[in-house]
Amino acid sequence: MTFAVLARDGTARQGRLTTPHGVVDTPAFMPVGTQGTVKSLTPADLREVGAQIVLANTYHLLLRPGHRLIRDLGGLHRFMAWDGPILTDSGGYQVWSLAALRALGEEGVRFRSHLDGGAEHLLTPELAVEVQHALGADVLHPLDECLPYPASREEAQASLERTVRWARRARAAHAQGAVPGQACFGIVQGGMYADLRRAAVEATCALGFDGYALGGFAVGEPRGLMVELVAATAEALPWAAPRYLMGVGRPTDLVDAVAGGVDLFDCVLPTRHARTGQVFTSRGPLVVKHAAFARDGGPLDEQCPCYACRHVSRAYLRHLFLARELTVYRLLTLHNLTYYLGLMAEIRAAIRVGAFEALRRAVHETHVSAIPETLTVLGGELPAPEEPS
Amino acid sequence: MTFAVLARDGTARQGRLTTPHGVVDTPAFMPVGTQGTVKSLTPADLREVGAQIVLANTYHLLLRPGHRLIRDLGGLHRFMAWDGPILTDSGGYQVWSLAALRALGEEGVRFRSHLDGGAEHLLTPELAVEVQHALGADVLHPLDECLPYPASREEAQASLERTVRWARRARAAHAQGAVPGQACFGIVQGGMYADLRRAAVEATCALGFDGYALGGFAVGEPRGLMVELVAATAEALPWAAPRYLMGVGRPTDLVDAVAGGVDLFDCVLPTRHARTGQVFTSRGPLVVKHAAFARDGGPLDEQCPCYACRHVSRAYLRHLFLARELTVYRLLTLHNLTYYLGLMAEIRAAIRVGAFEALRRAVHETHVSAIPETLTVLGGELPAPEEPS
What we know:
Strand order of the largest sheet of chain A: 4-15-14-12-11-10
Structural class of chain A: alpha/beta
Largest sheet of chain A: 6 strands, parallel
Largest interface: A-B, 44 and 44 residues
Oligomer: homodimer
Radius of gyration of chain A: 20 Å
């Protein structure tokens, strides 16, 4: 894997990540394909909306259908028929947010699955790497410990130290089992303490990784704190390596983090919001079931080139949504991802011509009414209880 | 609308229906788009699987979103973005199978909706036509009375007579309100009594319609009785008019009815079965969640040109199905419709070269293990309770 910064605008960077499965223009947004599919979409759909890379969840695929099965069938790319790059997370976040009966030890984390009737599993740094090798991920991550918010300084320090020790073991496991070209990113933890984040950067970079992920954000902290700490952490990272902010976020979060020097993002928001009828548009958010759209013959967004906006009206989408028709989840997912990936393309173009700050302000103005102070996004695309799938 | 029989093979016919929205090669299968969408698919998908015409349900669209709303937004073709032909049923079957508190009178049928908290509605022959005009259907149907099976001779006779009286009123309403090119088919009822079917044919043809629908089949009667009575009824109909067997059926039913001279079909089976993981293949039926497919890297059907068969394995589809991933419902729907529409293309080709009987036998051999004695298919594509949507 190689990464090159091609342009900069302030601390925002525009670059290119080259993987064994193709190129990713950064800043990039990765649609979340938790269980080996971006919910409701095919790989052809992903190409159509402009995705260059997708994320898959180690935890989910380990439990079902199992990484060995996927390996035996030729790896995750072939299994899900996506021939572009795949980034996998470490599974740590999902163990924390989804599994029951977690017991943390130096060896790893013992948990009961949210599936299979509560069978007990032990996820170690070595197993997490083995799973991601079996999947054939282009970019993998070491098992990390995830902190809730708020966490005390002592908890944050102990957690980051364990994450660094686990990263060392993951590094060794990766050195043994990786296929040429497979990259491994280090995860920087440290809670909401700026000095601990800097210490985490130092210790993680000392181990040496192909890129660096900023973990433990979007866990309920105030938005301003996240933006500030992301920028400070990114600044401390080596310029030449790609930086990935895990699980973030809203359009405003994306532009603010890009301003801080982040290159890669993933988030369930555009896809999950689609399934609950919440739509991103160039004029701000829109709730498709709103009565005002009952007789609205216009598209969701006149600026948008997606299939839904080219072919059907708000009134039709509202009808399908109220009727709980499967078609609507795909149409709104196509739309929301088209919006997100279009925004990333705008960001890249703006950085290249030195107009990024103006774009950032415009995104804030468009989405101002829609920014809650905090953002908490469950890692992995599990359907919420009220959802159709 | 025009119809031409282009070839025959025994009593099987190959023809062409020309509507204001395009041509339909017959025998044809119409995917069911109950609420203004074929569940999980877009119009682009429908074109990809080879659909030339779709069915929409008058009852469902009357209740939600309402036919006037659809008319005001430019009609159903524009609303659902399908520019091919649309055939609508009369609503009669759904009133019988879905609505509560039905009160039948000469005026029409009074019912409480299965939606909107049980509001009372009166569906008359005139309103059924008005709704279908508002939708802009290419082919519409008069309100008919639907009988359960079994029904006494007296019930069947009274029912067919009422259906004929309503057909006369529908004919008059259609003559007043139709747009040029809009066709209206008469519905032949008569229960499972051959002489009543013949009487219904005579009375309905005396009124004069653009085509004839065989209603009241696939309501629980033995399969052999249906096949026999469909053929006898079709034989009594005018050669030059298209014949449509409503709500039928399985692949074996299709070939048997084609042998009897039927030109048009609709059925929820391929789409509903897709959502419950039941797949049609050139080697017979297949249940996708079967444990035997857990590590099966092959396609559903090696003969099949659909997106799923070209890209993903049985193991992957099984995984998605067990994980209740939205993507799988679309993939299996694409597959099943590709199978059905491919079968219709084979049927047309076989009739043209005089090889239809051999094809009919082959379809029976392939699907022999999968033919239950009776078939009951609820009209309209409502999800079954255990289904994801």
